[in-house]
Amino acid sequence: MLYNKTEAIVLGQNDFGEADKVVTFYTKEFGKLKAVAKGVRRIKSRFGSAMEPFSHDHLMLYMPRKRDLYIVTGSRIIRTHKELRENFDSFITGSYITELVNKLTEPEEPNGHLFSLILEAFHQIPKQDRDIIIVIFAIKFLADAGYKLNLEKCVFCEKPIPLSEQKKLSIQYGGILCAKCQFRDVQAMNVSSLTLRYLKRIGIVDLTKVGRINIEASIKNELKRIVHFYLSHHLPGRLKTEEFMEKLISSSTV
Ligand SMILES: [Zn+2]
């Protein structure tokens, strides 16, 4: 089959030739792939906003064998998600998510779970605090990619850790360490019981069913620090959006 239909989310795009773009999609049926959208930069393009970042479309693709670049032959928009492109904060959050997916997934490895998770996160962006949605997405995404943190018992001795005991989280070993085993990872981070509780809850929260989530600042900062280490451990290189966000924060505090 050279022609295929699929649902797709636009992760990013680059100019190609005079009027075309190479668009990176996360598709439901085939996972991440790149395809040329011909004539998309012309004013009267037949694609409309279907090739804009965050767009959720039905696509018709020409997928010849032995070629890594496919061609978009048709599209129909399911949701434009233009609210994410029209608000600066939402745009940054959406870009963080698409960049993460782009960097942490292999081409053409479909994952229906991840496809739904991206859409659920997009729908939550206008309703939630930027940091909270990033933390939730990253934790769920990494768990889905096989890097689930073990938060129930010590990753080394497998003993349950009493609530009163000071816990450390080892990103390297993928879970919490009891007092006896903490010497095994000098980089393990202190985590409060409350943060740990939030981490567990985030792992199971259904994004389609939550209202606005409020987490106090100290816990939010701890969660952000965990996600930062968690991502840098599994991600080669840093995210452009993350660097950009840091610059934004430091420039706003000067
Ligand atoms: Zn232990």
Write a short abstract of this structure.
This protein has 254 residues and is α+β, with helices and mostly antiparallel strands.
Task: Please give the structural blueprint.
Blueprint: E1 3-16, E2 20-27, E3 31-37, E4 56-62, E5 70-79, H1 82-86, H2 88-104, H3 112-124, H4 130-147, E6 167-170, E7 175-177, E8 189-191, H5 193-204, H6 217-234, H7 240-253
Parallel strand pairs: 3-5
Antiparallel strand pairs: 1-2, 1-4, 2-3, 4-5, 6-7, 6-8
The structure holds zinc ion.
Describe the structure.
- The strands form two sheets. This protein has a five-stranded mixed beta barrel with strand order 1-2-3-5-4. The protein has a three-stranded antiparallel β-sheet with strand order 7-6-8.
- Helix 4 crosses helix 5 (193-204) and helix 5 (193-204) packs across helix 6 (217-234).
- It has helices spanning 82-86, 88-104, 112-124, 130-147, 193-204, 217-234, 240-253; strands at 3-16, 20-27, 31-37, 56-62, 70-79, 167-170, 175-177, 189-191.
- The chain has seven helices and eight strands, in the order E-E-E-E-E-H-H-H-H-E-E-E-H-H-H.
- The chain is α+β, with helices and mostly antiparallel strands and 254 residues long.
- The model has no long low-confidence stretch (mean pLDDT 90).
- The protein folds into two domains: 3-80, Nucleic acid-binding proteins (OB fold (Dihydrolipoamide Acetyltransferase, E2P)), CATH 2.40.50.140; 86-149 and 188-253, Recombination protein O, C-terminal domain (de novo design (two linked rop proteins), Up-down Bundle).
- Bound molecules: zinc ion (ZN).
- Zinc ion (ZN) is lined by residues 154, 156-157, 159, 177-178, 180-181.
